[in-house]
Write a structure and sequence with these properties.
Chain B: Keywords: Cell membrane, Membrane, NAD, Quinone, Transmembrane, Transmembrane helix. The structure holds two protein chains of two kinds. By secondary structure, chain A is an all-alpha fold. Helices cover 77% and strands 0% of the residues of chain A. Chain A has one domain (5-89): Orthogonal Bundle (Helix Hairpins), CATH 1.10.287.3510. The chains are: A mainly alpha, B mainly alpha.
Chain lengths: 101, 167
């Protein structure tokens, strides 16, 4: 079976599904962040594959922007997690229920 | 030959992604995350996006995962304690996962993708020079906005991590 666009899209979708499952299933804020990164990577792979098979550069440029924004997002998100940890001494989602009820 | 590499690296990425989701220790999850990113970088190489592969290794596998490991070790996060998962959460995650699988199948069997997949244009337009040209002409404004975004993120992190005065 020769590798074409379909295979890349299938891998991308599978990676997105795994990341999505992790976000729903895990309780540790840091691991949820890692699963978020997996989902971003899945979308990057789809963009690069479409860009390659389309013959243009736009997809690759978008991936460049995605990577930049993801890096900024990780920095801010981890700072928020550290600030939260200082206040509540935990990173487990079920214990962070200040807004419940 | 390229096909073989594709299957090897795709399996590596997906297996490592499962490792991220299912490993109890956050440090192990971060290590599996590095493997996933390296697999993705190799997939970028098979797609002839060499610059993006380098960026992927430098920014993701280098900077981002190191930041994750630093925070994990700074906060001394323990293995995940066994929380009771509510049945409704289980149902929701399984249904969501199943819907995404349906999405995979329907997308990969789409006629449009099958039509594109047979005609691969040569990668003459994918050089780094063209990438830079495109970035600084067509995408000049988004480029500047991205720089501004990084500045805002930097200021935000400094403000967030300043010691809060408790009185």
């Amino acid at each position: 079976m020769t590798v074409g666009l379909e295979q890349y899209i299938a891998v991308s979708a599978a990676l997105f599904a795994i990341g999505f499952f992790g976000v729903l299933r895990r309780k540790n804020t840091l691991v949820i962040y890692m699963c978020l990164e997996l989902m971003l990577n899945a979308s990057n792979l789809a963009l690069v594959a479409f860009s390659r098979y389309h013959g243009g550069m736009s997809g690759s440029v978008f991936v460049f922007f995605t990577i930049t924004v993801a890096a900024a997002e990780v920095a801010v998100g981890l700072a928020i997690i550290v600030a939260l940890f200082r206040k509540r001494q935990t990173v487990q989602v079920p214990d962070l229920n200040a807004l419940k009820n | 030959m390229t096909d073989l590499f594709f299957y090897i690296f795709a399996t590596l990425s997906l297996g490592a992604a499962f490792g991220v989701v299912f490993s109890r220790n956050p440090v192990n999850a971060a290590m599996y995350l590095i493997l996933t990113f390296l697999g993705m970088a190799s997939l970028f190489v098979t797609l002839e996006a060499y610059f993006l592969a380098v960026i992927q290794v430098l920014v993701y596998a280098g900077a981002v995962v190191v930041l994750f490991l630093f925070i994990i070790m700074l906060l001394d996060v323990k293995d995940e304690t066994q929380h009771r998962v509510k049945p409704l959460t289980w149902v929701a995650s399984v249904i969501g996962f199943a819907l995404l699988i349906v999405g995979i199948v329907s997308i990969s069997s789409s006629d449009n993708i099958k039509a594109t997949a047979s005609t691969l244009p040569d990668a003459a337009g994918a050089s780094l020079k063209n990438f830079g040209y495109e970035l600084f002409t067509t995408y000049q404004l988004p480029m500047q906005v991205t720089g501004f975004l990084l500045l805002i993120a930097m200021i935000g992190v400094i403000v967030l991590s300043k010691k809060v005065k408790t009185d």
